[in-house]
Amino acid sequence: MASVLYVVNGNAQSVSAGGTVSLGRAVHRNAQSQASLNGDAISIAGNGYFNVDVTITFNGAAAGDAEISLYKDGYQVPGAIARETIATASTEYHTVTISAEILKTPCKALSSLTVMNLSSIALNVTNVAVRVKRDA
Q: Which residues pair with 75 in a beta bridge?
């Protein structure tokens, strides 16, 4: 299984409740890659199964429950969610990882992947990294 795309954003960002996490820039992209960074989304053109790993570090702008999820084509990927409880605002850092297997079918030209803040609180994200690998 070869890595086809690796994107990173190490710049601090505030992600509002219900907002999209900015994925930053592509650090590595395989020359024959069927995945590319398109703004705050990853576009997948090839058909088949892709493994997606998201690692994100954040704290909460307020105390509460933080929920981050991977979305494909505007729909939450089943099981691709991470939850953390934030007891103290702005000082308590959490790092979570979300892993999912995505099926890209030929009935759609492109599939779009986004990372969303499903929390009822804003999150201060300090780092996000996403790796996309194609199953052999």
A: 72
Residues 6+ apart with CB under 8 A from 31: none
Residue pLDDT, tens place only, 122-136: 999 999 999 999 886
Please give the model's pTM, rounded to 2 decimal places. Answer: 0.92
56 φ/ψ angles, rounded to the nearest 5 degrees: -140, 135
Q: Is-contact 17 120, C-beta < 8 A?
A: yes
Of the candidates 88, 87, 77, the residue with the CA atom closest to the CA atom of residue 118: 77
CA atoms of 33 and 66, how far apart (whole Å) = 33
Give the residue from 122, 125, 111, 29 showing the smallest Cα distance to 71. 111
Buried/exposed 84-119: b ≥16 CB within 10 Å, e otherwise: bebeeeeeeebebebebebebeeeeeebbbbbbbbb
At 102, is the secondary structure helix, strand, or coil? strand
* 7-50 tens-digit pLDDT: 999 999 999 999 999 999 999 877 667 889 999 999 998 888 99
Q: Distance (Å, rounded) from C-alpha 115 to C-alpha 136?
A: 25
